[in-house]
UniProtKB/TrEMBL annotation:
Superkingdom of source: Bacteria
Phylogenetic placement of the source organism: Bacteria, Bacillati, Bacillota, Clostridia, Eubacteriales
Keyword Nucleotide-binding: no
Organism: Harryflintia acetispora
Protein name (record): Acetyltransferase (GNAT) family protein
Residues that span the membrane, as ranges: none
Amino acid sequence: MELISGYLNDPALRQSFNRLAIETFSLDFEPWYQGGMLPHGRYIPHSLVQDGEVIANCSANLFDLIVEGREVPAVQLGTVMTAKEHRGRGLMSGLMERVLAHYKDRELIYLFANDQALGFYPKFGFRRIPQTTYSLDVSALKRQDASPHQLNTDDPQDRVLLLRLCERRVPVSQTLGVHRDCWPLRAACSLVPRRLWRLEERIIVMERTDDTLYIDDILSEQPFALDELLPSLVPPGCRRLCLGFCPDQSALPFSREPLWEDDNALFVRGDALPKEFCFPETSHT
């Protein structure tokens, strides 16, 4: 058994990694790799390999967060998995210790865990903390005629805009945003094309459910004033708006509530986060 890292350009190891990811999470990374969405040095699998097969993995996603206007080097761990026949042997504990030692100089290390792993990560110095939800009664908005149209990723102009914004977008929030986040942003957009809407030269990741509009992200090359943009996004009949990111210096009366999720629990090592925050929905891996 050996530890091998950053091997995605090795077809045999990548296929083994993909088989384990499909078995564990029903998630196939191959289309993202073939589409150039897994940049070298930004998504790094760290895997225990036995007889040419990946039997355990913990991947590191290298992020440059923007926290209260300051750039913070961070790592989001993900794709934490062990093959069924090798579970219960302590492999992941040993792998986690080695991965954390490798990234000890990063200011923040964090991950999102499912309900079966809530007791695992505190053993390694992680603490569980809530995010904040931001919601708004849309009666507080002076509505404008909504003009966004659904993005068509088969249309060359829409596709070029999407690719450009994934590469060049400004962080959606200076309170807590992600800088240079083409991965996993492109992957997130590929999973939810029906939630992509175009408003002039911006793309809004949003979805309406009943009388509530959920806005997960706003992709723009230029800084924007959220309070000025939101009235153009709210459709008729909508009564409530929820954000999947932190609003910056908004004069709007957002309600704020702590969010504790058992199936998407946030664990962190480090003290770089603001008192109140929300990781952009499109940055989760």
